[in-house]
Amino acid sequence: MKKPYVISFSGIDGSGKTTQMNNLYEYLSNKGFKVKTTKVQFSALEVIYEYCDRYFGDPCAYHELPPFIVRIGLAYDVTHHYLKIMKEVSEYDFLLCDRHKIDFIAYGMGYGCTKEEMEWVEKILSLVEEPNLIFYFDTELSLSQERILTRKEKEHRIDENIDILTKVRNMFEKIITNKENIQRINANNSKNEVFNEIKERFNSLFTIANNVDKIHFKEY
Ligand SMILES: Nc1ncnc2c1ncn2[C@@H]1O[C@H](COP(=O)(O)OP(=O)(O)OP(=O)(O)O)[C@@H](O)[C@H]1O
Ligand SMILES: Cc1cn([C@H]2C[C@H](O)[C@@H](COP(=O)(O)O)O2)c(=O)[nH]c1=O
Questions:
Q1: How far is the CA of 213 from the centre of ligand 2 (A)?
Q2: Domain spans of the chain?
Q3: Is the ipTM of this complex over 0.90?
Q4: Could you give the CA distance from residue 95 to residue 108 in angstroms, rounded to a whole number?
Q5: Residues within a 6 A CB radius of ligand 1
Q6: Which atom of ligand 2 lies at the shortest distance from residue 103's CA?
Q7: What is the pLDDT of residues 38-56, one digit of tens each?
Q8: Which of 8, 46, 156, 189 has a Cα-to-Cα distance from 80 of 20 to 30 A?
Q9: How far, in Å, CA of 118 to CA of 70, rounded?
Q10: Is the pTM of this model over 0.80?
Q11: Closest listed ligand to the CA of 195
């Protein structure tokens, strides 16, 4: 079965993932490629919010729960989502993902799961294939925080705070050093500058033909 080329947009909250995923979607679609975007629906988080609201009076009080309870739920959500979508996208050239396995590992470690607990999270996630390419959005913490506080697209959440952002960012830095499919993007720049960097990286990895049947994947 033909598979699309899978690209993940990964990084901490407010780093600009969704904005740039949508830009690449437009760019590739305009070139005639068949492109799909996807984002995991966090059913586990929805249940956790409800639980925390009822029992602690605050939907985001999940620091009151053992981290593993939350993280293993997310691992099932992510695995279920990607196993299902990969069966549905054989006719697409590109699948662009707003977060992938790496994000949930970085958040799991950042939220304080133990090494043994993370082994279980990773065992569940291992059912999903690695993306072909990960754009890691590297932003300064203060800038990400500013974007979260000023964004209009969705409300700021109490768990999107500098303490968590710092821990998760440190975990990303740890994980990405061992990965070969990572392209680090300087996401501190303006939206246009960031997208230019993505296009440059992308085009250096691919020779883009206007004909969909002629995608040439370069070695990287
Ligand atoms: N390079 C940029 N410069 C300034 N503002 C930006 C930039 N990139 C994104 N933004 C703005 O920052 C906010 C967050 O961007 P976006 O939703 O793309 O980030 P994200 O990483 O997907 O965030 P989250 O993980 O919280 O969903 C949005 O209001 C967006 O318009
Ligand atoms: C990946 C991941 C995310 N979260 C939190 C972080 C954000 O506040 C929300 C929404 O995430 P989005 O992808 O930026 O829309 O969820 C989390 O708690 N655990 C995770 O693994």
A1: 36
A2: 5-40+79-214
A3: yes
A4: 24
A5: 13-19, 147-148, 151, 153, 190-191, 194
A6: 1
A7: 999 999 989 999 999 999 9
A8: 156
A9: 12
A10: yes
A11: 1
